[in-house]
Amino acid sequence: MNIPSELKYTKDHEWVSIEGDVATVGITDFAQGELGDIVYVEVETLDETLEQDEVFGTVEAVKTVSDLFLPLHGEIIAFNEALEDEPEKVNSDPYGEGWMIKIKVSDPSQFETLLSDADYKDLVGG
Q: What pTM, to 2 d.p., does this model score?
């Protein structure tokens, strides 16, 4: 299981990287493995400002649909449109081409409340 040390994580299996006040968000390798083959990613909250832990979209796999929770309060400023045609990128490259959204973060201090790679490994039993 791949859990990059430079990222932060949530208990809901999202990963976060931050550059300045813009965070990139996707789901973890563990999450995509648990979901199985991803067939659709839906984000209807583009250009909206949401609170931390609010639902920003859904990911649909062959057997289930799961909500996606915003890891940091802020405005969703980008959606990875490549996922519209190739949602399987979430399975094949969850930390790269399978990213989902970018957020203009309202409170960068929230980044420090997220799980470290070691904490996330403990959570998933890795």
A: 0.96
